[in-house]
Amino acid sequence: MRSNHNIGSEVYYILPLYILHSDSKLLSGRVWNEWWTPAVGPDTGHQVMDSCESNWANPPATWANRGGKLLVVLTALWISYVALLPPATEYEVSVFTSRHVAARGLLYAVLVGSGALLFHSALRRSRLWMVATACALVAYAGYFGLPLTRGYVQYAGYGFDVWVHVGLIDDIANRGTISDLQYPATHLLSVSVSQLTGVEVETTTPLIAFWFKVLLVGGVFVFTRAQSRRPALAILTLLAALPIFYSQNRFTLAPWVFGLTLLPILLYAVHEHAIGNQRRAVSTFALVGGAVVIYHPISALFSFVACAVFLAAVFAGRHVRADISTPATRGVGLVFGGFAGLLGWHLYHRTVDGSIRSTALSLVERQPGGSAQTASTATEVGYTIWQLVYYFLVPNWGVLLLYLGIGGVATVYVAVRYFVQSSKATFYEGHVAVHYPVGGVIGVAFMVFDIHAGGVTRAAQYGILVSIFLVGLALWFAARRRNESKVAGVVCLLVLGLVLGGLVFSVSTGYSDNYHMTHAGSDGYDWHLETKDESVVSYGDSMGGDVYPFSYYGYAETRDRANDDMYVSSLELLAPHLGYHETETVGEWLPEDGYVLLRTEDLVWHEAHPEWRHDDLVRITEDDYDRLHQDRTANRIYTNGEVRIGKTRTP
Questions:
Q1: How would you class 204 by CB atoms within 10 Å of its CB: exposed for 0-12, middle for 13-18, buried for 19 or more?
Q2: Strands 634-639 and 594-599
């Protein structure tokens, strides 16, 4: 437990600033009276006493108290199950679905129960929302820690960028040098956490990812409460923030995810300075803005665009709403200072400069980007439309599309309130809604042209984050109207059901199959790199390439070796069935002699796909390996049950 506490104190350094902006009343307990009393809002100028807040003076229902106690028990059972899991004795295709169905059901029950209790707390003046939030985050702590408890070296395959980041971290920790200045914040943070806890960087990765999840949830809650001044809406938005949106990137060293996590806190700081006239918000902005700049350039760009949109909303609101009287220019210096820091830090980095050049070229030549290539590849895998939706679209982007859809409906509803219903929408609603089309334009532009379009999720990250606030609004609108008619009640239950369903589904698909490395796999590859002749090519069957050597040699040394034409990676792909379907020996098929690397991951990766596709997807089988063992043109030089290495020779 001591190591987790140390990690929290290192990563969760922003939260004391929230207390600072509340004049430290949170510690004394006085702040709760302010936060839970229906506010005299800047949006309407009178007490906000909507239908769902009219009964907040009532104590929480007995069933809710009992439900909270049951939730604590279920959470304790889940975290105990995770803590007592023995290390894996053999390779598992999936970290999560390999767990017993009852254990997975226990996690689902905790998350759904937490969501339901949050919803209840938002409708009644109940502090049970704190119990629900704590249980959800503790459940997530166990969920994020599954690779650690199962004894895996890292939640990453041989071709994952995380190994490049580990190499950069190794350079800092062992050589005292920062080999790449594009976004060193993640690497410096990882070194600090590793030194504080005394464990390897690979082990701390899921723990760091978890604390950034906490930062996102906390930032969303604080910003919504500060700008809307509606505690119920803040809790409902917190509920909307609980699902995992970025799939496996939530569990790895992903600077773009970590940077984007800080956006709600940055918006909060600008809001406090521009609307609340809090000068102390400048220090918060400087700290968080500096952090987001050195985390990732695209996430920083999104963050400062979001701040600029907020200032534009303030400026526009001054002219149409009497309640927005603060000068719109306040905070402009902060945002432009952030843009200056973004440009100053990243403009001359090689990767960023190359991205700018390639983007400009694609715009001039009108070349299609990553999304067109993805769509083209999807049409070649032999799926029908239904299979494409069921096996590809929904598992990868189901929750994303659900949230974007609900966000779109909420945006239309806000627009109707603004332009049809005599400006009934509040400033907060208008501000959040205007981000939706901005995010849509950015996402489409990133997908149409090859601008940081490593995937649809990365291209649409601005819209995903905005959708959290919009889903919170949708829950708020539905809850306010729930007693007006049967239709309104059904709509309320439908929206709540969709959010809770998205919560469960995002957990079910958060871990991807074969995206983890065992100790045997790591040891086998380390042996290969230690003993191999670097003038000889290595052949592998990894579907994602091979960047693992960065973690073995370190980033700088790996680059130097590669520049000297040394074969430090197995980038040459083996033929299906080792070429035996075309030739008698593997030596006849390979263009030159080299090492042949076979890993359990390569042998079983097809098991993550529908069974009806296995015949088409199986590339290498145990029979192929047995034939390799009898092959006169290849010698087996290493095996440990997870990694098998042979070396070919000319017959």
A1: buried
A2: unpaired
What pLDDT is recorded for position 248? 60
Asked if 145 and 530 count as a contact pair (C-beta separation under 8 A), the reply is no
Residue type, 223: F
SS (H, E, C) 595-622: EEEEEHHHHHHHHHCCHHHHHHHCCCCH
Cα distances (Å, whole numbers) of residue 504 to 155, 171, 292: 21, 39, 30
Parallel, antiparallel or unpaired: strands 643-648 and 594-599:
antiparallel
Please, which residues have CB within 8 angstroms of residue 401's CB and are 6 or more apart in sequence? 393
Phi then psi for residue 219, to 5 deg, are: -65, -40
Cα–Cα distance between 442 and 561 in angstroms, integer? 39
For residues 570 and 540, what is the distance between their CA atoms, to the nearest angstrom? 5
Containing 638, the helix (H) or strand (E) segment is strand 634-639
Alpha-carbon span 469 to 310, nearest angstrom: 14
DSSP 8-state code for residue 323: T
Q: Which residues of 588-621 are buried (b: 16+ CB within 10 A; e: fewer)?
A: ebbeeebbbbbbbbbbbbbeeeeeeeeeeebbbe
Residue 646, phi then psi, degrees to nearest 5? -125, 165
> How far apart, in whole angstroms, are the C-alpha atoms of residue 529 and residue 523?
10
**Distance in angstroms between the alpha carbons of the first and the last residue of the chain:** 59
The β-bridge relationship of strands 537-540 and 572-573 is parallel
pLDDT at 614: 78
* C-beta atoms surrounding 110 within 10 Å: 27
Q: How far is CA 269 from CA 20, 43, 298, in A?
A: 12, 19, 20
Question: Residue 637: what are its φ and ψ, rounded to 5°?
Answer: -115, -10
Please state at what angle helix 332-346 crosses helix 263-274, rounded to 10 degrees: 140
Separation CA 141–CA 435 (nearest Å):
31
Neighbours of 154 (CB within 10 A): 28
User: Which stretches of 226-382 are assigned E, i.e. beta strand?
Assistant: none
Task: Report the distance separating Cα 330 and Cα 342, nearest Å.
Answer: 20
Question: Going by C-beta distance under 8 Å and a sequence separation of 6 or more, which residues neighbour residue 290?
Answer: 341
Axis-axis angle for helices 185-197, 162-170 (nearest 10)? 70
CA distance 597 to 640: 12
The pLDDT assigned to 515 comes to 85
Angle at CA of residue 224, ends 293 and 476, nearest 5°: 140
Mean pLDDT (10-residue bins), the chain, 651 residues: 35 34 37 41 39 45 85 95 90 90 95 95 88 95 91 85 89 86 84 84 82 92 91 95 77 82 88 74 80 82 87 73 54 78 69 58 51 52 71 80 92 87 79 92 75 67 91 92 86 92 90 87 91 89 77 90 85 81 84 87 82 78 85 89 85 58
Handedness of CA 550, 553, 557, 558 (dihedral sign): negative
Q: Which amino acid is at 326?
A: T
pTM (global) more than 0.85: no
